[in-house]
Amino acid sequence: MTMEFATRYRAASRIPADPSKPYVIEKGEGDRAHLFGDLITVYAGGEQTENTFNFFTVEGPRGDIIPAHVHADTHEVFYVTQGAVRLFVEDTEGEQSERVLTPGDFGFVPKNCPHAYRMERHHTQIVGVAAGPGHTFERFFETLGTPTEQLGLPAEPFVPEQHKFGSVREQFDVRFLPDHQWRDR
Prior knowledge:
By secondary structure, the protein is mostly beta strands. The protein has 4 helices and 12 strands, in the order ββαββββββββαβααβ. It has helices spanning 46-49, 140-144, 162-167, 169-172, and strands at residues 31-35, 38-44, 53-60, 66-70, 75-82, 85-90, 96-101, 106-109, 115-119, 124-131, 146-148, 175-176. A hairpin with a 5-residue loop joins strand 6 (85-90) and strand 7. It is globular and about 45 Å long.
């Protein structure tokens, strides 16, 4: 049985806010949100790690590209545990690359590098970690998306209203790039 805690983010969270307390969370029982066609589950975030890193999973079906975005102060890791993900990245000199990641593959995106991704197979899962100087962005998912108690994917994709994309930049170090073009897409 997983305990529930009240936090500043949620009335009921499975993640204790106290960073000095060890904890265990059963598979899938972290804080969940739906965003686009995906289920995001947060297992550790800023409250638990003194804003040094977060740990989350993204599960989704084959689908559309997640919009291009950049993090000014946060590095991001993509580790594929099932399925396949096409990772699009542009380095700080403007050189673009894309690569399909399959189970066991690891992708690293440094801060200030525009990136996007697309699930290439149904039932794809990514383990994500983000870290930077005093930043984590795990609460971005439920702020832009919608918190859920469901364990599965959304019945219908949850696409936020356009104005919400601009509202997450300062608070979560996520700046969307709506006009960004991937040359070899």
